[in-house]
Amino acid sequence: MVLERVAKEQHARLTLVGRDVLFAAGEHSLDGQTLTVSRKQNTEKSKESVILRVPLLGQHQVVNAATGYAALKASGLNVSDKAIRNGFAGVTWPCRFEIVRREPPVILDSAHNQDSFEKLIQTLEDYFPGRPVILIFGSSEDKDVAGMLSALKGRLKLVLAAKAIHPRAIEPESIVETANRLGVRAEAAGSVDAALTRALELAAAGGEIVLSAGSMFVTAEVKTAWEKLHGT
Question: Can you give the pLDDT at residue 1?
Fold first, then answer.
């Protein structure tokens, strides 16, 4: 393993999450999730465990939380488990499966490649199994649009292709062409504001999930547009 080899060469202590630090997911709801993290102590049979609660949603956030806990404990900083529990319980991360409305759901996410879209579909299945999605989607010109849309294909009712105010943003018509090649219904919505308005109108009638993803700058604009609509 490359990390083990380099750590040995640099005489650096290596902590592997999943080996030296174990974790298990607990309960989860739209309000957050819990996990149990265990660290090996001086002997193989001696372990220290802590239960953490995080407001962030998705199995990948359980992994992130366990890794964050391990990093704090390995850092040498005098941070108590109580302080870590309090910090994790109060964490916020805008546009990471951020549910700004529960019914019909409006979700802001920053997935911007195929891997993060695969984590996104897993999280959708965990919290909204089988529910169709209206996707507000925009991307940079150099991104794998087909790979991202393919990951969500089975859940997509409609893709609303939008163009953010960004020099690298791909044209909505190009997104529509890619979606159509995949057999996914799509419309060129133009601006992000127009895409959000259209998505909310459709969801009001059909109850679908309104989801923004594809790039961080598109979802940032969706968040701004949503806050303008709701005076926040």
Answer: 81
Burial of 43 (C-beta count, 10 Å sphere; 0-12/13-18/19+): exposed
User: Rounded to an integer, what distance in angstroms lies between the CA atom of residue 70 and that of residue 39?
Assistant: 8
Total domains in the chain come to: 2
Q: pTM of the prediction?
A: 0.92
The last residue of a domain, from among 67, 89, 111 = 89
- What is the spatial distance between Cα 165 and Cα 208, in angstroms, rounded to a whole number? 27
Beta carbons of 120 and 213 less than 8 angstroms apart: yes
- Residue 136 CA neighbour count, 13 Å, CB half: 37
- Domain of 67, CATH number, reads 3.40.1190.10
What's the pLDDT tens digit per position in 64-123? 999 999 999 999 899 999 999 999 999 999 999 999 999 999 999 999 999 999 999 999
